[in-house]
Amino acid sequence: MLTEYIIAFFISMVPLIELRGALPYALVAGIPTIPAYIICIVGNMLPVPVIFFFARRVLEWGKDKKFIGRFFRFCLEKGHKGGAKLQSKAGKGLFLALLLFVGIPLPGTGAWTGTLAASILDMDFKSSVTAVMLGVILAGIIMGLCTYFGLGIFSVVS
Predict the structure, then answer these.
(1) 53 lies in some domain
(2) Of 28, 43, 137, 157, which sits 20 to 30 A from 148 (CA to CA)?
(3) Is residue 110 part of a domain?
(4) Residue 17, domain member (yes or no)
(5) Average pLDDT over residues 93-106
């Protein structure tokens, strides 16, 4: 059982998959609901400070490099687009926009992209992390409900 906890924790740290993939895995693997949420939220939030303070610098540094430049430019463009979209739609409600951007579980809208966008928009660290954390919790609630209802549908069919 410890193996499932560790796998769920590490899945929640992977960009693009994050809590959205880790929580369904954890629940299907039989991890109780509350520990599954805690493990996945902690795993998803652990990289956030590193992303906020260093990702933009590393991406800017590497965008002109031969082998990694293409990927780094892609990441910067994704962060810029996400940030511009948030800023244009949010205006002064940037905190709420970031929370919803991270919280609605769509591909490419998780904690990694949200934190990079907040860094690019020069949001302050405290409000960025708070908005991302609340967004991750919201995404966890949505994914948990989808997993439970999805499992309920599949168990009736089989």
Answers:
(1) yes
(2) 43
(3) yes
(4) no
(5) 91
Rg, the chain, Cα only: 17
The CA distance from 75 to 67, in Å, is 14
- What is the per-residue pLDDT for 111? 94
Task: Say if CB 58 and CB 142 are below 8 A apart.
Answer: no
Q: Is residue 37 part of a domain?
A: no
| Angle at the Cα of 40 from the Cα atoms of 35 and 46, rounded to 5 degrees | 125
pLDDT for residue 155: 45
Q: What is the pLDDT of residue 77?
A: 85
Average pLDDT over residues 121-134: 93
- Is 143 in contact with 105 (CB distance < 8 Å)? yes
Q: Which of 12, 15, 16 is nearest to 37 (CA)?
A: 12
- Pairwise pLDDT comparison (77 vs 111), residue with the higher score: 111
Give the Å distances, CA to CA, from 5 to 14, 40, 49, 62, 105: 15, 9, 23, 34, 22
* pTM tops 0.85, yes or no: no
Give dist(CA 28, CA 151) in Å, integer: 8
Q: What is the pLDDT of residues 20-32, one digit of tens each?
A: 999 999 999 999 9
Provide the domain limits for residue 105: 48-157
Domain total of the chain: 1
User: Tokens in use for 88?
Assistant: 């244009």
